Amino acid sequence: MTITFTIIPNYEQDVLKLLHQLIHHASTNPHILEAHIYRSQKEPYNFFAYLQFTDQAALDAHEGNAYYGEYVMTNLYGMLAKDSPTIETYKSLFQHTRHEK
After folding, report:
1. Among 6, 30, 33, 78, which is least packed, fewest CB within 10 Å?
2. Helices and strands (H and E) in the chain: how many
3. What percent of the chain is helix, strand and coil (3-state, nearest 5)?
4. What mean pLDDT do residues 26-32 have?
């Protein structure tokens, strides 16, 4: 899943705090393999999030859980610019694993 979003100016500290809590929550969920949030270096109100789930059922459960509803739907959406966010889900076609020496 990828999410791009733009926040409303003057909400930076609130958004950063909320995103930190979301990443912490994701790190405790065994069905979320990766969770990363990036901030644009050129446009500081633009963000990009990447989450990788174990399977479709895990994604569906994530979107339906109370934590997601409370923090994302209730809090974060009120700090987003109009026409934001854009959410995409992708199906893996090829797997690449980095091999350590």
Report:
1. 30
2. 3, 4
3. 40, 25, 35
4. 91
The end-to-end CA distance of the chain, in Å, is: 30
Q: Which two tokens stand for residue 22?
A: 């979301």
pTM of the model: 0.83
> DSSP letter at 78?
G
- Among 7, 24, 23, smallest CA distance to 15 is for 7
| pLDDT single digits (tens) 45-55 | 999 999 999 99
Asked if residue 17 lies in contact with residue 37, where contact means CB atoms within 8 angstroms, the answer is: no
- Cα separation, 5 vs 46, in Å, equals 6
